[in-house]
Specification:
13 helices; 5-stranded mixed sheet; 6-stranded mixed sheet; alpha+beta
Length: 319
């Protein structure tokens, strides 16, 4: 199932550029296309009960000129949108990954990739989701349902080498915290495992979250994080937000990867975990999670330029 989220639709129906704001604000290589008379950036939601199909459809839509939204891009879109926009009112799968690997020196680290990493290839995602759960299967799932990755994949992601042979920049966390001038859309951040592990997993105050290393990495830096927390805090006058990880319960010696998700529910009810009736299904606003199981269900957002002259969706059917 796909749902087109055009700028016109969101302006008329939801009163915001919403998801489409990602294209204008973050897609620097696409700016020229956006400014032409016949081309607009359009975002589309791809929701499937089978994650491989959702990702494959999103990548096909984005093609070479677009992108599938990472966690920083999803958060940025929320900052640009009002609270009644769909970007706030349901959950999304990010095109980001968090991998636990061991460096050649024996140090355990988390490597976060934004913009697509090991599991940017739908066939690789399918191998994990459909793998035999035997402990001996090197491409199956761990006991906590993270995806196992090989030593070669772990080495490559640590060094910014993607499965297709391309290289992306890799930043040490302290450098990333200070701010990177001209930060690209596609990059990796290396965070010490013990530092990541010390972060609380659960609902935490906004004051604590603004200095939380995991949140800084997930949001794309300190300034984007502060902008998102400010917007999230005022949504329902909440005092806390969920930030989840699994680092306190995993075997750090096992190379593994999870795909973080951004939750959302209509109206922001229970956003701080204080609602006694809050469930733990996909309708719950539990914040940002990277601690759940690799699951079939997925909802990706893809953004790409589309021609006004050849597309039906830009026509005015009103009389």
């Amino acid at each position: 199932m796909t749902g087109l989220v055009t700028r016109r639709y969101m302006l008329n129906a939801l009163g915001s550029v919403g998801v489409g704001a990602m294209a204008n604000s973050l897609a620097v290589p696409l700016a020229a296309a956006e400014n032409t008379n016949n081309t607009r950036m359009v975002a589309a939601i791809f929701f499937e009960s089978y994650a491989t199909i959702a990702l494959r459809s999103a990548l096909r839509y984005a093609s070479d000129d677009g992108f599938v939204a990472s966690m920083p891009q999803l958060l940025h879109a929320r900052v640009s949108a009002p609270y009644d926009n769909i970007i706030w009112n349901t959950w999304f799968t990010s095109n980001s990954e968090e991998s636990g690997v061991t460096t050649p020196a024996g140090n355990q680290v988390i490597v976060a990739v934004h913009g697509g990493g090991i599991f940017a290839d739908p066939s690789r995602l399918e191998r994990s989701l459909r793998a035999d759960l035997s402990r001996s299967n090197s491409e199956g799932l761990t006991g906590q349902y993270a995806a196992k990755i090989s030593s070669v994949e772990a080495h490559n992601v640590l060094n910014g080498r993607l499965p297709d042979g391309r290289d992306i920049p890799v930043y040490a966390f302290e450098e990333f915290r200070r701010g990177v001038t001209g930060l690209p859309m596609h990059y990796a951040v290396v965070l010490d495992f013990e530092t990541a592990k010390k972060s609380k997993s659960g609902y935490e105050s906004f004051q604590v979250l603004q200095d939380d290393p995991n949140m800084i990495v997930r949001a794309g830096g300190v300034e984007p994080l502060l902008a998102y927390l400010d917007k999230a805090r005022t949504r329902n006058n909440t005092e806390m937000m969920g930030s989840w990880h699994s680092y306190n319960r995993i075997d750090a010696s096992q190379a593994q990867t999870r795909i973080p998700e951004l939750s959302g529910n209509k109206g922001g009810v229970g956003s701080d975990g204080s609602d006694p009736g809050l469930g733990w299904g996909y309708d719950s606003d539990y914040g940002i999670t990277g601690g759940g199981a690799m699951a079939d269900l997925a909802r990706y957002v893809a953004v790409a330029p589309r021609s006004v002259s050849t597309s039906l969706q830009f026509l005015d059917f009103e009389l």
